[in-house]
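Bumping my old thread because nobody answered last time. Still need a sequence for this structure:
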């Protein structure tokens, strides 16, 4: 079942259960996926492209959450936290820090990196493997830690 089909099913359930916030988030996700398909000039998106859109939506919400918390707007921060929960439910299972560290160490060996100057090569090797399964900023911090 594609992500769009899953969203349609969840949308029906949310409508029946009168879950307004969840319905709103699902509609927004569907729109984001459809806009991406239009932008790419395709009928449907590949699983990888769907993950890219979902990751972008999660990142936007995390950035908004940070801004709202810094501004002391707890009402908006709570709304974003709820949205983040709904969006994150459609992402694949996230990798643990230990799993990430193993992937990073393998990538460093493959690339032969020895310093932070070669961080770009390592990140380029890792990111396609962990796309949608790990936050890029966390990966970045762990790579820096391994290369120092």
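Sorry it took so long. Here it is:
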């Amino acid at each position: 079942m594609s992500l769009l089909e899953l969203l349609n099913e969840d949308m029906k359930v949310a409508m029946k259960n009168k879950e307004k916030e969840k319905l709103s988030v699902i509609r927004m996700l569907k729109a984001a996926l459809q806009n991406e398909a239009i932008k790419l000039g395709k009928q449907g998106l590949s699983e990888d492209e769907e993950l890219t859109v979902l990751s972008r939506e999660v990142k936007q919400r995390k950035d908004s959450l940070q801004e709202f918390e810094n501004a002391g707007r707890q009402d908006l921060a709570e709304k974003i936290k709820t949205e983040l929960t709904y969006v994150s439910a459609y992402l694949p299972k996230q990798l643990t820090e230990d799993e990430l560290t193993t992937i990073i160490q393998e990538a460093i060996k493959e690339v032969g990196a020895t310093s932070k100057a070669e961080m770009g090569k390592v990140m380029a090797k890792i990111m396609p493997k962990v796309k949608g399964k790990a936050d890029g900023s966390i990966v970045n911090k762990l790579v820096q830690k391994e290369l120092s």
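Helices lie at 3-16, 20-40, 47-70, 74-88, 97-111, 119-130, 136-147. Let me know if any region looks off to you.
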